[in-house]
Design a protein that fits this description.
single chain, 229 residues, mainly alpha
C-alpha cells in the first residue's frame, strides 16, 4: 500500500525518523542524564540507521547499493570542507571567545564524561569519521529524498536543512547561552542546506561526508580549547 502511495510513504518515513535524534539528545542531556539517558541516545542512533535501511528494503523494495566516491567527490568535498573549517574557526576566534562561558561548558562536559582526555579523543574520532557518515546517509540520502517527493527540490533542500538543525539546537542549548546557540544553529542550518544542495546536484553523499569531516574537526578543535586549555 505504501509502495503505491509515494507521498504517504515519504511522510510516514519522515515522521518515524526526524523527531528521534531530538528525543535521544533531550533524554541524554536534560531528562534522564546518566546511564538511562545514554542508552536512549544509543537507541536513537541505532533507530536512525535502521529506519532508512528497513524502509529501502521492505517499503520501497529496492536493493541497498554501495557506490565508491569519485575523484570529483573527493576534490569538491575537500575544498568545501576546508572552507567550512576556516569559517567555523574564524567565527570562533572573532565571537566565540567573547560569548562562550568556558566554565559552564567545562561543567557540562564533566557531567557527560567528556572531560577525560581519552574519552574526548575516542568521542571525537567517532563523531568525525562515523557519525558524520551516518548523518549524511540519514539526512541527505534518506530525509532529503523523502522531502523531494513531497515538495520541489529547492524547498526540499531548505526543509532537509531545517530538519537536520533541530536536534543540534537541543544539544547546543545544553552548553551555550541563547546568542551562541542561535549563531551555531544558523551555521548548522547553512551547512545542512549546503550538503542537501550537494546531494541534489551530485546525487552522492560523499561530498557531504568529506566536507562534514572537516567541519567536525573544526568543532572538536574548539571543544578541545574550551575543555582542556
Amino acid at each position: 500500500m505504501l509502495k503505491d502511495s509515494p507521498n504517504l510513504n515519504a511522510l510516514l518515513g519522515l515522521l518515524l525518523l526526524v523527531p528521534v535524534p531530538s528525543i535521544g539528545v533531550a533524554a541524554e542531556l536534560y531528562i534522564l542524564p546518566g546511564i538511562i539517558g545514554h542508552l536512549i541516545a544509543l537507541f536513537s542512533k541505532i533507530w536512525l540507521l535502521a529506519i532508512p535501511i528497513i524502509w529501502l528494503l521492505f517499503v520501497d523494495k529496492e536493493n541497498l547499493k554501495f557506490e565508491y566516491p569519485k575523484g570529483r567527490d573527493l576534490l569538491v568535498g575537500a575544498g568545501l570542507g576546508l572552507l567550512m573549517l576556516s569559517i567555523i574557526l574564524t567565527f570562533y576566534w572573532l565571537l566565540g571567545t567573547q560569548w562562550i562561558d568556558v566554565e559552564y561548558v567545562r561543567d557540562r562536559a564533566n557531567q557527560v564524561g567528556l572531560n577525560s582526555f581519552t574519552i574526548y579523543l575516542v568521542g571525537a574520532a567517532y563523531w568525525i569519521f562515523i557519525n558524520s557518515l551516518l548523518e549524511e546517509f540519514v539526512w541527505r540520502w534518506f530525509v532529503y529524498r523523502k522531502c523531494e517527493i513531497l515538495v520541489t527540490s529547492p524547498l526540499a533542500v531548505v526543509i532537509c536543512g531545517l530538519f537536520f538543525t533541530i536536534h543540534h539546537v537541543v544539544g547546543l542549548s545544553a552548553y551555550f547561552d541563547w546568542k551562541t546557540t542561535i549563531l551555531c544553529s544558523l551555521g548548522v542550518f547553512i551547512a545542512g542546506v549546503v550538503w542537501s544542495w550537494c546531494y541534489l546536484t551530485y546525487r552522492s553523499i560523499w561530498i557531504g561526508y568529506i566536507s562534514h569531516i572537516f567541519a567536525d574537526i573544526a568543532i572538536f578543535i574548539i571543544g578541545w580549547q574550551l575543555i582542556f586549555t
